Amino acid sequence: MWRRLKRLGAAQLLDGLVALPFDARNKEQLEWVADQVIESGGRASVWIGQPGSGTDELGIISSLSAGIAEEYRAVIAEAASTRDADPASRRRVLARLRRELHRIRYRDYFPPPEADQARRAVNGLASVVEVPS
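User: That's the sequence. What structure does it adopt?
Assistant: C-alpha coordinates below.
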Protein backbone atom coordinates (compact mmCIF):
# COMPACT_ATOMS: atom_id res chain seq x y z
CA MET A 1 0.00 0.00 0.00
CA TRP A 2 2.86 2.42 0.80
CA ARG A 3 4.12 2.13 -2.79
CA ARG A 4 0.70 3.18 -4.10
CA LEU A 5 0.60 6.16 -1.73
CA LYS A 6 4.17 7.10 -2.62
CA ARG A 7 3.20 7.10 -6.32
CA LEU A 8 0.60 9.74 -5.42
CA GLY A 9 3.32 11.86 -3.80
CA ALA A 10 2.57 11.10 -0.14
CA ALA A 11 5.04 11.84 2.64
CA GLN A 12 5.17 9.39 5.54
CA LEU A 13 5.03 11.39 8.78
CA LEU A 14 4.83 8.50 11.24
CA ASP A 15 4.22 4.77 11.01
CA GLY A 16 0.74 4.56 9.51
CA LEU A 17 0.36 8.32 9.02
CA VAL A 18 0.94 9.97 5.66
CA ALA A 19 0.40 13.47 4.33
CA LEU A 20 -0.70 14.28 0.84
CA PRO A 21 -1.68 17.63 -0.66
CA PHE A 22 -5.46 17.83 -0.81
CA ASP A 23 -7.14 17.77 -4.18
CA ALA A 24 -10.01 15.81 -5.72
CA ARG A 25 -7.69 13.36 -7.48
CA ASN A 26 -5.85 12.47 -4.28
CA LYS A 27 -9.05 12.17 -2.27
CA GLU A 28 -10.50 9.77 -4.84
CA GLN A 29 -7.31 7.69 -4.93
CA LEU A 30 -7.11 7.47 -1.13
CA GLU A 31 -10.75 6.43 -0.89
CA TRP A 32 -10.02 3.72 -3.45
CA VAL A 33 -7.02 2.46 -1.41
CA ALA A 34 -9.14 2.48 1.77
CA ASP A 35 -11.83 0.44 -0.01
CA GLN A 36 -9.21 -2.11 -1.08
CA VAL A 37 -7.96 -2.44 2.50
CA ILE A 38 -11.50 -2.93 3.79
CA GLU A 39 -12.29 -5.48 1.07
CA SER A 40 -9.19 -7.39 2.17
CA GLY A 41 -10.51 -7.57 5.72
CA GLY A 42 -8.58 -4.66 7.16
CA ARG A 43 -9.62 -1.34 8.61
CA ALA A 44 -8.99 1.96 6.88
CA SER A 45 -10.30 5.49 6.82
CA VAL A 46 -9.37 8.71 5.10
CA TRP A 47 -9.01 11.76 7.29
CA ILE A 48 -8.70 15.27 5.99
CA GLY A 49 -6.69 17.58 8.18
CA GLN A 50 -4.21 20.36 8.16
CA PRO A 51 -0.91 20.99 9.90
CA GLY A 52 -1.13 22.62 13.29
CA SER A 53 1.32 25.36 12.39
CA GLY A 54 3.08 27.01 9.49
CA THR A 55 6.30 25.35 10.63
CA ASP A 56 4.67 21.91 10.41
CA GLU A 57 3.33 22.72 6.96
CA LEU A 58 6.74 23.88 5.75
CA GLY A 59 8.28 20.69 7.14
CA ILE A 60 5.87 18.54 5.16
CA ILE A 61 6.41 20.58 2.01
CA SER A 62 10.16 20.33 2.49
CA SER A 63 9.93 16.56 2.87
CA LEU A 64 7.81 16.21 -0.26
CA SER A 65 10.09 18.50 -2.28
CA ALA A 66 13.29 16.77 -1.15
CA GLY A 67 12.14 13.38 -2.38
CA ILE A 68 10.99 14.76 -5.72
CA ALA A 69 14.22 16.75 -6.15
CA GLU A 70 16.23 13.54 -5.69
CA GLU A 71 14.21 11.86 -8.44
CA TYR A 72 14.82 14.81 -10.76
CA ARG A 73 18.56 14.68 -9.99
CA ALA A 74 18.60 11.01 -11.01
CA VAL A 75 16.99 11.96 -14.35
CA ILE A 76 19.54 14.75 -14.85
CA ALA A 77 22.46 12.39 -14.14
CA GLU A 78 21.15 9.68 -16.46
CA ALA A 79 20.48 12.12 -19.28
CA ALA A 80 24.04 13.47 -18.96
CA SER A 81 25.63 10.02 -18.83
CA THR A 82 23.68 8.84 -21.89
CA ARG A 83 24.73 11.62 -24.25
CA ASP A 84 27.83 9.65 -25.33
CA ALA A 85 26.07 6.27 -25.66
CA ASP A 86 25.33 4.60 -28.98
CA PRO A 87 22.30 5.99 -30.87
CA ALA A 88 19.97 3.06 -30.09
CA SER A 89 20.73 3.30 -26.37
CA ARG A 90 20.20 7.06 -26.41
CA ARG A 91 16.77 6.62 -28.04
CA ARG A 92 15.70 3.99 -25.48
CA VAL A 93 16.92 6.05 -22.53
CA LEU A 94 15.31 9.22 -23.91
CA ALA A 95 11.93 7.50 -24.19
CA ARG A 96 12.23 6.12 -20.66
CA LEU A 97 13.35 9.46 -19.20
CA ARG A 98 10.40 11.23 -20.84
CA ARG A 99 8.06 8.71 -19.18
CA GLU A 100 9.88 9.14 -15.89
CA LEU A 101 9.53 12.93 -16.05
CA HIS A 102 5.81 12.49 -16.63
CA ARG A 103 5.52 10.18 -13.59
CA ILE A 104 7.48 12.59 -11.39
CA ARG A 105 5.45 15.64 -12.50
CA TYR A 106 2.27 13.75 -11.56
CA ARG A 107 3.45 13.77 -7.92
CA ASP A 108 5.27 17.10 -7.93
CA TYR A 109 3.06 19.47 -5.94
CA PHE A 110 5.87 21.88 -4.99
CA PRO A 111 8.33 21.90 -7.93
CA PRO A 112 11.97 22.32 -6.89
CA PRO A 113 14.56 23.99 -9.15
CA GLU A 114 15.64 20.51 -10.28
CA ALA A 115 12.36 20.17 -12.20
CA ASP A 116 13.42 22.70 -14.84
CA GLN A 117 16.97 21.32 -14.84
CA ALA A 118 15.66 17.81 -15.52
CA ARG A 119 13.45 19.02 -18.38
CA ARG A 120 16.42 20.85 -19.89
CA ALA A 121 18.64 17.76 -19.50
CA VAL A 122 16.08 15.52 -21.23
CA ASN A 123 15.53 18.12 -23.98
CA GLY A 124 19.31 18.30 -24.42
CA LEU A 125 19.48 14.53 -24.81
CA ALA A 126 16.59 14.75 -27.29
CA SER A 127 18.52 17.28 -29.37
CA VAL A 128 21.38 14.77 -29.67
CA VAL A 129 19.04 11.84 -30.45
CA GLU A 130 16.79 13.68 -32.87
CA VAL A 131 19.51 15.32 -34.99
CA PRO A 132 18.67 14.81 -38.68
CA SER A 133 21.17 12.52 -40.44
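Residues 65-133 form one domain.
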